[in-house]
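Quiz preparation item.
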């Protein structure tokens, strides 16, 4: 491996953008979390059913700077 390849590598970002999805209705929104943190689960208001519901992390969308 060349020395220039080592110097030009990008550092990994600290945060990632993840897709959160409701377990009840399928409503989705984006949330930012730290790269090394566990997968997110949260209770939040779901506008489709007009009640609070459980949202789980569905997938990582992209890295953030």
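Solution:
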């Amino acid at each position: 491996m060349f020395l220039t390849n080592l110097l030009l590598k990008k550092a990994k970002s600290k945060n990632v953008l993840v897709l959160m999805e409701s377990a009840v209705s399928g409503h989705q929104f984006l949330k930012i979390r730290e790269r090394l943190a566990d997968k997110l689960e949260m209770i939040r208001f779901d506008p489709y059913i007009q009640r609070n519901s459980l949202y789980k992390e569905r997938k990582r969308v992209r890295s953030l700077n």
